[in-house]
Amino acid sequence: MLIKEDDIPALARGCAVLGTGGGGDVRTGSLAARRAIQAHGGVPLITLADLPEDALILPLSGIGAPTVSHEMIHSEDEPKRIAEEAERIFGRAPAAVMSSEIGGGNGVAPVAWAAQLGLPLLDADGMGRAFPEVQMVSMYVAGLPADLVIMSDVAGNVVTIRPVDGLWSERLARAVCVAAGSSALMADYVLTAAQARGAVIEGTVTRAIAVGRSTEQTADPLGALQDELGARRLITGKLTDVERRTSGGFVRGSAVIEGTGADRGRTLTLELQNENLVALEDGRVRAIVPDLITVVDTETAIAVQTESLRYGQRVTVLAWACDPLWRTVKGLETAGPAAFGYDLDYVPVEELA
Amino acid sequence: MLIKEDDIPALARGCAVLGTGGGGDVRTGSLAARRAIQAHGGVPLITLADLPEDALILPLSGIGAPTVSHEMIHSEDEPKRIAEEAERIFGRAPAAVMSSEIGGGNGVAPVAWAAQLGLPLLDADGMGRAFPEVQMVSMYVAGLPADLVIMSDVAGNVVTIRPVDGLWSERLARAVCVAAGSSALMADYVLTAAQARGAVIEGTVTRAIAVGRSTEQTADPLGALQDELGARRLITGKLTDVERRTSGGFVRGSAVIEGTGADRGRTLTLELQNENLVALEDGRVRAIVPDLITVVDTETAIAVQTESLRYGQRVTVLAWACDPLWRTVKGLETAGPAAFGYDLDYVPVEELA
């Protein structure tokens, strides 16, 4: 498949849904992807089977607070500087770009980065959603060594980190990101096609496009989206309180939705850290990370990202199961409730009342 | 010359004097240097003339707040990891270690790093003193590109920065340092012997040893030191107020010395940022960066580093001329009063009343 300009709106809508509020602004990513396709042509979407065993895959993502990346568009130079540094280190040029996280702008922008580099995009990512911290990727859960991070910022700096582990990777990359103005482009877990087997989540670009297409040309976008995702509806109502603060390269906060219509009298509270992490009702968990929780516009079923939450919006909160990888012991250690500082047990969303 | 264990005390005393309060704790550096010489033997001290044109020089320094580096001793692994990364990048191993700053522990510890790497130490440095920020080196003033910084911390992480300029180099290196616990080992301006000519300050290891030796076996250490340095005495008195705070990887603060004896009734205030930057008396500048200002024990003439300033100490403040490089336009732009946020003109210490 060739990703063309008119695929971008569906991809962007799907990535916003899979982003659970985060992953960077999809509008910025869409704009970059459309411009790059206009300049360089469509981007071939390939699978792991299309690549030789030793082909180098460059997983790219923006890192930073969404409220900042919203304002800053990455330049064409950043992927080039990262690809050059990867070639300098590995002795050969990357053969494909991969999205590190399919959620949010980080799922869409890799189309731009691939187009700018003249490379195909791999139909896979490292999360199947969005997560706020850089070690929260499938490659880490699969046990690949977190031994190299390459970053570049809009000023033109290139920083290469050889961390002793994934937590140091996050700590150092985050510090560099904050120093660079809370926004940078990053390659994490540069890997061969052979290493990628079982260590990336395949098919997620195709899935994001399908999720985005599901709400097109239907009288019931919300129902269609719910079916496509296999999601449960936690509440339909009105946003009555939103609290956000940007600190240390993250957006943290909470959002309160008061039920309307059939849900009148109920209140759902979302805890945020770039992404929606926990949905609480009357002190009970209704859904919790790593399962996916997304706020959508009740009428259009378009996802509302964290930075766009506004008082008075009419929204529905959907929740559905994460990739099985995140439900393993290592997966939950990496991105379960405790990894975010919550003293709450993980219970799969389909088992919660 | 071979630097032997019994040269270390004189080197350490000299480096403390040249450190103008900063440059990292000399006790930690001395301990590391003595241990490394015991384990690996003495370190040859060489000059630029001893090196082939394309020999690679590895300028090393600790970066961080002195109050932290005092507590953390760098491991043997850090210089090795940095040398390996330099070899990976340049395709050949470094031929010599150089001190980035001769002041403080950063002037002494390179003896340890050279011994651990089995390399000679170059009789030169990048400051002729100590400065708090990483771009404040002679290589920067000489116009060498600030295009590579290699850092390693005690946890084992290695970070390589390819900054667009010296200010970004400082900003990113400082962020990494803070994330790494406010202490890291750093190679900045890795350069060839050919590039080093005119871009490093030669003879400073020899000078530090001579400064340290000047106070040995004399009835008047203070007078001997003053003569050796060509320094002027700003005040002799008692430390009556010391204010220090560690923030952003720096120690900032001030110290007040009230005159005693012939200086009774006079008060000198020092402004600090790791180093002593300005000496003020009655609102008038008595000495100012980049000229050197050092607090010494009045009786022993041993330098008192910033982190050791204590209420009640009997001290004398000496000030003397910096290397001519720092008095050039580019030198003053880089490390003159304005570079530290002072709205004060630079006047050479010998022209001040």
From TrEMBL, chains A, B:
Residue stretches making up the S-Me-THD N-terminal domain: 6-161
Full protein name: DUF917 domain-containing protein
Parts of the chain that traverse the membrane: none
Signal peptide location: none
Alphabetized Gene3D superfamilies for the sequence: CV3147-like, CV3147-like domain
One Pfam entry name: S-Me-THD_N
Taxonomic lineage of the native organism: Bacteria, Bacillati, Actinomycetota, Actinomycetes, Streptosporangiales
InterPro entries according to UniProt: S-Me-THD-like_C, S-Me-THD_C_sf, S-Me-THD_N, S-Me-THD_N_sf
SUPFAM superfamilies, sorted: CV3147-like
Source organism of this protein record: Nonomuraea endophytica
Top-rank taxon: Bacteria
Residue ranges constituting the S-Me-THD-like C-terminal domain according to the UniProt record: 166-349
